[in-house]
């Protein structure tokens, strides 16, 4: 069970959240070819290690934010608001 | 040595001293025609059919641990073929037909039991969707029937069909030829049969990278050194992306924990498989009497081979809603496997952009049932360099073409 530090509400139990998958994806422009679109729509990083992902505090402030989490140890390194980069 | 009543008798008289190991433990050679990475059911089945159907016997199956301890040895063993979409129906039904003769073919008791798979509907929408699916399945020649509540009551007497529930059961469908099998036996049976045909099974030998030269796979790097290969086939389930990335191949796969648990052994009480979508759980009873209970998967990527506790709590709550009689039963064990999930919940089987590198993955939460069919079509693909008609729709290129096989929306219950 994860304890997720929502940047707006503080640490809360995982069951209050929904995971939105890999963060910082960039939507391709209208000229992009099918391969680019496929990458954007269907391909996600799947690292055995550090991953940046979006979470939604569904049963709390109902805001989206980013989390940097280790997919093997489940350690959460940092959480930061949408539109920001993680602390180095 | 063939297993038979006569062999049992001979060995009983001989003091059980003459049994041989079911497969060898060879040292890897420096080169094979085909190297298969992943000794789960799918990898072992692939090796067997390569040797048996295509005469390719210069084959090694390499696993990082003992064979069959990945998802093959962790699953809840539901076997069925009642998938909605034509390509899936054809592939899973091909697998089910192979299952029906497999214990005989492998000379290994897979304890395959066609006790029927019953899926429950709790909403008007689920019921309508089920009726549509039964119609589609019949058109594809796959046995399927709707069950009325009376028929369901007779078939599963302990099921709670009270109208007072938050979600009362409204109806059900059944695939009579579906059922369960012994998961370990599937891996062991294929291993033994492949070994007898000359396949080397290399255990406890992690593969760290795939070697690629000028756009062509030429071997693998392992804990026991580099092994050259004419062709490399990767069948590594939840660990497939990290390995394929060493060859520069990206896959649309996410790895998630999927959990299951078993109860203490009980007297026989359930002689069919129950799959329940909305009130989510699925359950069957093993020949040892344990209830085998499947949960939902976690919602975030993880390689930690455990799942979240609240997922199991929800599964147990669902089970007790369906079978209140079980409220005081104790659980024996709980575990998770790391499953490889694609965006359309259909597998990826075929060649890749690297020549002589093949991949079979994305079976996610439901590939045990498909093991024989998967190995059969993958062996064909490796032997001929091109997909069989049955797996042609399941190529990696379908994502860029937008030709998804969207069983996620179609199947209802995923396992
Ligand atoms: C809890 C649970 C319940 C399930 N229930 C069902 C069900 O009821 N019905 C159903 O049809 N399916 C079910 N499934 C899904 C099913 O188990 C899988 O789809 C299927 O077993 C996959 O088989 P596989 O051979 O591809 O993978 P695995 O059996 O996982 O084999 C992959 C092998 O690759 C090896 N490997 C990985 N990386 C490396 C490496 N770098 N080097 C060497 N070896 C490596 C692993 O050790 C492993 O043995 C369930 C899964 C789980 C986890
Ligand atoms: Zn919040």
In short:
The complex is a heterodimer of chains A (88) and B (415). Chain A is mostly beta strands.
Please give a structural write-up:
The complex is a heterodimer of chains A (88) and B (415). In chain A, a hairpin with a 3-residue loop joins strand 1 and strand 2. The radius of gyration of chain A is 14 Å and the shape is globular. The mean pLDDT of chain A is 95. Helix content of chain A is 10%, strand content 38%. Chain A has one helix and six strands. Chain A has a four-stranded antiparallel beta sheet with strand order 3-4-5-6, with no helix packed on it. Chain B has two domains: 22-77 and 183-253 and 344-411, 3-Layer(bba) Sandwich (FAD/NAD(P)-binding domain); 114-178 and 255-341, D-Amino Acid Oxidase, subunit A, domain 2 (D-Amino Acid Oxidase, Chain A, domain 2, 2-Layer Sandwich), CATH 3.30.9. By secondary structure, chain B is α/β, with parallel strands linked by helices. The mean pLDDT of chain B is 96. In chain B, the strands form three sheets. In chain B, strands 1, 2, 8, 9, 10, 11, 17 and 18 form an eight-stranded mixed beta sheet that branches. An eight-stranded mixed beta sheet of chain B has the order 5-6-4-13-14-15-12-16. Chain B is built from eleven helices and 18 strands. The chains are: A mainly beta (88), B alpha/beta (415). At the A-B interface, strand 3 and helix 1 of A face helix 10 of B. Bound molecules: flavin-adenine dinucleotide and zinc ion. Flavin-adenine dinucleotide is lined by residues 37-43, 62-65, 69-72, 74-78, 206-207, 235-237, 239, 243, 258-260, 294, 337, 339, 363, 365-369, 415 of chain B.
Main sheet makeup of chain B? 8 strands, mixed
Q: Give the oligomer, counting copies of the same chain as homo and different chains as hetero.
A: heterodimer
From the alpha carbons, calculate the radius of gyration of chain A and give it in angstroms.
14 Å
Most extensive interface? A-B, 26 and 23 residues
What is the N-to-C succession of helices and strands of chain A?
EEEHEEE
């Amino acid at each position: 069970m994860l304890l997720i530090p929502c940047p707006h509400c503080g640490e809360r139990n995982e069951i209050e959240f929904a995971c939105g998958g890999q963060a910082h994806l960039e939507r391709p422009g209208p000229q992009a070819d099918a391969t680019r679109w496929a990458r954007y729509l269907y391909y996600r990083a799947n690292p055995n290690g550090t991953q940046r992902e979006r979470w939604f505090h569904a049963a709390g402030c109902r805001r989206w934010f980013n989390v940097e989490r280790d997919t093997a140890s489940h350690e959460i390194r940092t959480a930061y608001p949408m539109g920001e980069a993680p602390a180095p | 040595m063939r297993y038979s009543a006569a062999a049992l008798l001979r060995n009983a008289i001989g003091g059980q001293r003459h049994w041989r190991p079911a497969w060898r433990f060879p040292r890897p050679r420096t080169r094979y025609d085909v190297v298969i990475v992943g000794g789960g059911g799918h990898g072992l089945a692939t090796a067997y059919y390569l040797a048996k159907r295509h005469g390719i016997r210069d084959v090694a199956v390499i696993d990082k641990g003992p064979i069959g301890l990945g998802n093959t040895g962790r699953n809840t063993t539901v076997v069925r073929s009642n998938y909605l979409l034509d390509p899936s129906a054809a592939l899973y039904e091909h697998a089910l037909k192979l299952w029906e003769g497999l214990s005989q073919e492998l000379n290994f008791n897979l304890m395959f039991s066609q006790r029927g798979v019953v899926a429950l509907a709790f909403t008007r929408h689920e019921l309508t969707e089920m009726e549509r699916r039964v119609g589609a399945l019949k058109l594809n020649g796959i046995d399927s029937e709707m069950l009325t509540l009376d028929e369901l009551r007779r078939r599963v007497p302990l099921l709670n069909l009270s109208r007072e529930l938050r979600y009362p059961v409204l109806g059900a469908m059944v695939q009579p030829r579906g059922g369960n099998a012994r998961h370990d036996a599937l891996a062991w049976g294929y291993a033994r049969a492949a070994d007898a045909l000359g396949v080397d099974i290399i255990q406890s030998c992690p593969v760290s990278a795939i070697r690629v030269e000028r756009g062509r796979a030429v071997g693998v790097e392992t804990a026991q050194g580099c092994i050259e290969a004419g062709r490399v086939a990767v069948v590594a389930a939840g660990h497939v992306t990290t390995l394929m990335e060493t060859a520069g191949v990206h896959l649309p796969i996410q790895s998630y924990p999927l959990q299951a648990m078993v109860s203490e052994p009980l007297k026989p009480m359930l002689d069919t498989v129950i799959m329940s979508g909305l009130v989510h759980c699925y359950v069957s009873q093993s020949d040892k009497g344990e209830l085998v209970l499947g949960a939902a998967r976690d919602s975030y990527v993880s390689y930690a081979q455990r799942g979240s506790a609240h997922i199991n709590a929800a599964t147990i709550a669902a089970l007790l809603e369906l079978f209140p009689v079980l409220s005081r039963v104790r659980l024996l064990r709980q575990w998770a496997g790391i499953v490889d999930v694609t965006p359309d919940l259909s597998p990826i089987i075929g060649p890749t952009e690297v020549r002589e590198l093949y991949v079979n993955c994305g079976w996610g939460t439901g590939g045990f049932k498909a093991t024989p069919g998967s190995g059969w079509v993958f062996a064909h693909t490796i032997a001929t360099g091109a997909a069989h008609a049955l797996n042609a729709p399941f190529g990696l290129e379908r994502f860029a073409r937008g030709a998804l096989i969207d069983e996620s929306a179609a199947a209802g219950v995923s396992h």
